[in-house]
UniProtKB/TrEMBL annotation:
One of its GO terms (molecular function) is kynurenine-oxoglutarate transaminase activity. Residues 28-377 form the Aminotransferase class I/classII large domain. One of its GO terms (cellular component) is cytoplasm. This is Methionine aminotransferase. InterPro entries: Aminotransferase_I/II_large, Kynurenine-oxoglutarate_AT, PyrdxlP-dep_Trfase, PyrdxlP-dep_Trfase_major, PyrdxlP-dep_Trfase_small. The keyword Transferase applies. It comes from Algoriphagus boritolerans DSM 17298 = JCM 18970.
C-alpha cells in the first residue's frame, strides 16, 4: 500500500544532486560544504590508537566525560563561560542530529518556529515532522544581515522558537553583539527559545570573533547551541557534533537523542578529547581559512562575477544578475557540465525558491583545486 508522506514536498537535497553531478561530470566540486583536504595526521593517529586499544563499544548516551569536559573548557576559552560537562553538554552524531533533537524537544503541534532565510535545508523538515509551522523571515538582501523589525513582526502568541545561524550558511554573514542583544530584547518577556546553528564557529575572518548565544547571559538559559567537530577539524564524514544547553533543556534534549542515535562513535570521542587539549588546534583555524578565502576571492573577482563579502564559514557568494538573467539552477548545472566547476544555486535556500541570481562556492579545497576552478571560471562568458 502507498505510504502517505510526511514530507511530500521534499526530494533529494540539492547538495546530493550537485555532488553526484560533479562526480558524473568529473568537475571540481565547490558545491557541497566539505573540505577537499585531509585532517591533521595527529588526530588520525589518535583515532587509530584508541581503536586498536579497544575503545570500540558503546559510549555513554551523553558522550564520554573526557570529551564533554574538553568541550566545556574550549567553550570557556572561546566564549568566556563554562557549561557543566555533566548536565549541559551532549555529544551527538553530527550537528544535523543536534538541530533535529533540539527541535523535537521543543516543538509541539501548531507551534510556530521563525526561520531566517536563506536557510540551511534541514531546519524546515525538522519543524514539519514535529507538527510545527515554519514562519519565514528574509534576511536583508544586500549583506544577509537580520532585519529585526521583520523578526519582531513575525512573533506571535504561537511562536515557540527561533532558528538562527552564525556564521551564516550560505552567505558568510557573522552576527555582532548588537544582534545578540536585540534578539534577547525581543524574546525577554516571552516563552520563546532559540536553536543556534554554530557549526562554523571557528571559521571567521578579518578579525571578527564568533559570538555564541551561549556566551550571552540573557540568551544562555533559553538556547540550544549546536556545533560540529567535523566542520572544525575537516572530518565531516565522521558525523560528530554536540549540543550545549542549560540543564533543564538538556534533560529534554537527551530524551530525544537517546532514541535517535543513543550514542556516538566511541574511539573518535576519545581522540577528540585528547586532541582538544592543545587550544591552538582550533584557535588557528580562522587564519588557515582566511588565506583560502582571499586566494579564491581574488581570482573569482577577475571572472566578472560580483562577490558578496564573506566574513565567516567556508562559502563565497557571487552575483551574476548584471551578466545574465539565466536561472541560478540552470546556470549551476551548465557550469558543472561545461566549465566542470560545481556550485550551489542560492534559490534552494529559500522557501519560495526566489532567484536573486546568486550562486555559492565552497572554498574549503586545496589551493591547487581553487586555482584550477578559477581558471575554468574564467570562461564563464561561454554559458552566460
Amino acid at each position: 500500500m502507498p505510504i502517505q508522506s510526511k514530507l511530500p514536498h521534499i526530494g533529494t537535497t540539492i547538495f546530493t544532486v550537485m555532488s553526484k553531478l560533479a562526480t558524473d561530470e568529473s568537475a571540481i566540486n565547490l558545491s557541497q560544504g566539505f573540505p577537499g583536504f585531509g585532517a591533521d595526521p595527529i588526530l588520525l593517529e589518535l583515532v587509530g590508537n584508541y581503536t586498536r586499544e579497544g575503545y570500540n563499544q558503546y559510549a555513554p548516551m551523553a558522550g564520554i566525560s573526557e570529551l564533554r569536559t574538553a568541550l566545556a573548557e574550549k567553550t570557556r576559552i572561546t566564549q568566556g563561560y563554562y557549561p557543566s560537562p555533566e548536565h549541559e553538554v551532549t555529544i551527538v552524531s553530527g550537528a544535523t542530529e543536534a538541530i533535529f533533537c533540539a527541535v523535537s524537544a521543543l516543538v509541539r503541534k501548531d507551534d510556530e518556529v521563525i526561520v531566517l532565510e536563506p536557510a540551511y535545508d534541514s531546519y524546515e523538515p525538522a519543524i514539519t515532522l514535529n507538527g510545527g509551522i515554519p514562519v519565514y523571515v528574509s534576511l536583508n538582501s544586500a549583506d544577509f544581515s537580520v532585519d529585526w523589525e521583520k523578526v519582531k513582526s513575525a512573533i506571535t502568541s504561537k511562536t515557540r522558537a527561533i532558528m538562527v545561524n552564525s556564521p551564516h550558511n550560505p552567505s558568510g554573514f557573522v552576527w555582532s553583539q548588537s544582534d545578540l542583544d536585540t534578539l534577547e530584547e525581543l524574546i525577554r518577556d516571552r516563552e520563546i527559545y532559540v536553536i543556534s546553528d554554530e557549526v562554523y564557529e571557528h571559521i571567521t575572518f578579518d578579525g571578527l570573533r564568533h559570538l555564541s548565544l551561549g556566551g550571552h547571559s540573557g540568551l544562555r538559559n533559553r538556547s540550544f547551541v549546536c556545533g560540529s567537530f567535523g566542520k572544525t577539524f575537516h572530518v565531516t564524514g565522521w558525523k560528530i557534533g554536540y549540543c550545549i544547553a542549560p540543564a533543564a533543556l538538556t534533560v529534554e534534549f537527551r530524551k530525544v537523542h537517546q532514541y535517535v542515535t543513543f550514542s556516538t562513535v566511541t574511539p573518535i570521542q576519545y581522540a577528540l578529547a585528547e586532541y582538544l587539549k592543545i587550544s591552538d588546534r582550533y584557535l588557528s583555524i580562522p587564519g588557515f581559512y582566511q588565506k583560502k578565502r582571499d586566494l579564491f576571492a581574488e581570482g573569482l573577482a577577475e571572472t566578472g562575477l560580483k562577490l558578496i563579502s564573506s566574513h565567516g564559514s567556508f562559502f563565497q557568494l557571487a552575483s551574476y544578475g548584471h551578466l545574465s538573467q539565466k536561472s541560478d539552477r540552470i546556470l549551476a548545472v551548465e557550469m558543472t557540465k561545461i566549465l566542470k566547476v560545481a556550485c550551489i544555486p542560492i534559490s534552494v535556500f529559500y522557501s519560495n525558491q526566489q532567484d536573486d541570481k546568486i550562486i555559492r562556492f565552497c572554498f574549503a579545497k586545496t589551493d591547487q583545486q581553487l586555482l584550477e576552478a578559477i581558471k575554468r571560471l574564467g570562461e564563464l562568458n561561454k554559458i552566460l
